[in-house]
Design brief:
Number of strands of chain B: 17
Helix content of chain A: 40-55%
Shape of chain B: globular
Strand order of the largest sheet of chain B: 14-13-12-11-7-10-9-8-17
Number of helices of chain A: 15
Shape of chain A: globular
Strand content of chain A: 5-15%
Oligomer: heterodimer
Largest interface: A-B, 33 and 41 residues
Structural class of chain B: alpha/beta
Order of helices and strands of chain A: EHEHEHEHHEHEEHEEEHEEHEHHHHHH
Helix content of chain B: 25-40%
Chain lengths: ~375, ~350
């Protein structure tokens, strides 16, 4: 089957493109927004197209001749919401038969309540804007999928790890600069999925007929803790558990004023309103906000501190997770059976890290979406 | 006082490097009357218009063939690499001096043809390897030759990150147009510096991740047995590397962070402390900060213009571009696959 991969330059999209280039069974066509997005894709002599997926006309051209589409594009919350409609319009215009959308287990938050399953209602009052955007995108896709001329499967992976994953490189980066930390000894549940298991899930979704926007959790077979994920990478790189310090969770698991301002600024009505103002007052407001957010100066008399690092809100929520999301529905309806064990997934991730020079001396990581 | 008239320059290729680098340097040099920009050559009218905003009096031409003879004294070639050789030869035939953006060409054969054409026309060919104008890298070269910190023992170079150059077209990723991947792109700078400091390596091993296309990540092992120096170079346009050069001398470790033109970090052997230093230059007006990254680029262009004006060789002549190309071709000939993922 000819399958277009939207976001083929990203971590998951590229691995999918790579696996299908190397061993099939599908013929991938990479779709990326700009020429710069071709750097990874160009390793292969495969097919590619340039198209902004928010532009349904350009995307329709890029999808011509494909029987299926896999939507792996991430981006900021607005991109996540705003790409659903043009992708569906383009898929319909190009005569695509199947759409696989990569959503996220985060639609139920980083720490979903026990008993959460695919039938649990979607919430849009999460603390993190990413979760809400994914939930809104899913809702929109489910409503479009009911009357779309193509079949749709929604996959909800949790923590996708593997070569190029932030969950691997962030740990390696932190280890390299002596800043590795976990919360509560890493006892929280990590709803992990090795990237090649996600590739398998996508292949299962493409092989299953009759889906109209059904969501499925997909994950590794094992129950994995954050300790196992972090320590697996550390041991592979020659460290042990003494490399980790206990981190302090974010003090208040609720939105700060800063978060709320960002949420309002990022909303569509606010963006329209902001566009009406001239640059000078906008710059002044931005400067005032930046000054207000500036962290307080460090006491020049204080000695360098080795106190426990403060975890981000996202990590605080993730490390508090006590729920293993079940992929029983995917196993039953998509015949999903993760082929790679967690242990092998970690070994392969570490092998990649070593092949590309490990993390020695690397600077602190920047957050990837 | 004798007035020196500006040298008339033509810009061949109006893509991202022309807009982000050459236009800025040209504007500074035009303001001080060192050059005037007389011609902008690019097949894309939109790209010509972008550059015309910097140089409104320059004449636009869609093709190099349209440039009337003797319109410009000097041409800077900033087009995709596959055009470099043919354009340079044509410019030499038109009696122009040429500063060619790196890589000098996509093959050694093309580069040799360019040099031959320059010699025949008795014109100057320089190559845009502007890192040679970074004060920090000049200092490292001096450490290597003066042995201030003892003999260089090893080096570990890691450069690159997810590709974010604002390429105007996909030509970067087309083998026919680009000629190679990350090795022929960032690798040209890296290998040029190592050749400049250490000469030709006698041991070369090379692996990359290309699978029918252009490499995004490569690893090079270099050895200089006479000096007992070994080093590795890791280049990537796929994932973020540490972007740093670590050089182990007998009595100190020297660290250079990629892009920091006038800053070095030095740790004496046995010490836990790093000396982090910005370089300054003695001048008749006292000590001034050494050239920054953009200033080094401007200095490269000015060096070339001055070489034409006073008839001396440029600091980085075309022959230097040929050396790094030879080493790159040697790497590609020895290519082994870099296994990044399991099948």
């Amino acid at each position: 089957m000819n399958v277009a991969i939207l976001g083929a330059n990203g971590f998951i999209g590229h691995r999918l493109f790579e696996v299908w280039q190397q061993r099939g069974p599908h013929v991938p066509r990479a779709v990326v927004r700009s020429p710069a997005g071709l750097a990874r894709v160009a390793r292969f002599a495969g097919e590619w197209r340039l198209a902004d997926i928010r532009d349904a006309t350009a995307l329709t051209r890029a999808l011509q001749g494909c029987q299926a589409v896999v939507h792996c594009v991430v981006g900021d919350p607005r991109d996540i919401r705003d790409t659903i409609d043009p992708v569906c319009r383009a898929a319909a215009s190009a005569g695509v038969a199947k759409l696989v959308y990569l959503s996220s287990a985060a639609v139920h938050g980083q720490n979903p309540p026990p008993g959460t399953n695919e039938g649990s209602p979607l919430r849009t009052d999460h603390l993190l804007a990413y979760n809400n955007a994914k939930a809104r995108a899913e809702r929109r896709l489910q409503s479009l999928a009911r009357r779309a001329p193509f079949e749709t499967v929604i996959l909800r992976p949790g923590i996708v790890f593997g070569a190029r994953s932030r969950w691997v490189t962030d740990v390696a980066d932190a280890l390299a600069i002596g800043a590795a930390a976990w919360i509560d000894g890493g006892r929280g549940i990590c709803n992990s999925i090795y990237v090649d298991n996600l590739v398998h899930a996508i292949e299962c979704a493409l092989a299953t007929d009759g889906m109209r926007g059904e969501p499925f959790f997909v994950g590794d077979a094992e129950l994995v803790t954050w300790r196992e994920l972090c320590l697996g990478i550390a041991v592979g790189l020659g460290y042990d558990e003494t490399a980790f310090t206990e981190s302090t969770p974010a003090p208040r698991l609720r939105r700060t004023w800063s978060d709320r301002i960002d949420a309002v600024r990022g909303s569509r009505p606010a963006q329209r309103l902001i566009a009406c103002f001239p640059d000078a007052p906008k710059t002044a407001v931005k400067a005032a906000l930046a000054a207000w957010r500036k962290p307080s100066a460090i006491d020049p008399w204080a000695l360098p501190s080795h106190s426990a690092p403060l975890a981000s809100l996202e990590m605080s929520l993730l490390f508090a997770c006590r729920t293993k999301l079940s992929h029983a529905k995917a196993a039953e309806q998509l015949r999903y059976a993760p082929p790679i064990t967690f242990r092998i997934g970690i070994a392969q991730s570490v092998a990649w890290l070593r092949a590309v020079g490990g993390a020695a001396g690397r600077p602190p990581a920047t957050r990837q979406t | 006082m004798r007035t020196i008239s500006p040298i008339n320059v033509g810009l061949v290729g109006c893509g991202a490097v022309a807009e982000l680098y050459y236009a800025r340097a040209f504007a500074v040099l035009a303001q001080s009357n060192v050059i005037s920009v007389g011609a902008l050559i690019d097949p894309d009218p939109e790209r010509r218009a972008v550059l015309a905003r910097f140089f409104p009096t320059a004449q636009p031409y869609p093709r190099l063939e349209d440039l009337p003879p003797e319109t410009v004294t000097v041409a800077v070639i900033a087009s995709p690499p596959r055009f470099h050789a043919a354009q340079a030869v044509q410019l030499f035939n038109d009696r122009c001096h040429v500063l060619c953006e790196k890589p000098l060409a996509t093959t050694v054969v093309e580069a040799e043809a360019m040099l031959q054409a320059a010699r025949t026309a008795q014109r100057t060919l320089a190559v845009g390897l502007f890192r040679r104008f970074f004060p920090a890298l000049r200092a490292i070269g001096e450490f290597c030759t003066s042995r201030l910190f003892g003999r260089l023992q090893s080096f570990d170079v890691r450069e690159g990150g997810p590709f974010n150059w604002p390429a105007a077209t996909p030509s970067f990723f087309d083998r026919k147009q680009a000629g190679g991947g990350v090795l022929l792109d960032a690798g040209v700078h890296v290998l040029d510096l190592l050749l400049w400091w250490l000469g030709e390596p006698t041991h070369v091993a090379y692996a990359d991740d290309a699978q029918g296309g252009l490499e995004a990540t490569c690893r090079i092992e270099l050895g200089y047995p006479a000096e007992s120096i070994r080093g590795t170079v890791l280049l990537s346009r796929d994932w973020k590397t540490s972007n740093q050069w670590l050089l182990e001398f007998e009595r100190a470790t020297v660290l250079w962070r990629v892009g920091e033109a006038n800053r070095l970090e030095i740790r004496p052997r046995g010490s836990a402390d790093w000396l982090v230093s910005s370089l300054e230059t003695e001048s008749i007006r006292g000590r001034v900060p050494a050239d920054s990254y953009p200033q080094a680029f401007t200095r490269q262009v000015r060096d070339f213009i001055e070489s034409i004006r006073i008839g001396r060789p440029p600091r980085v002549p075309g022959e230097e571009g040929l050396r790094s190309l030879r080493l790159i071709e040697s790497c590609y000939r020895r290519r082994t696959p870099l296994a990044l993922e399991s099948p």
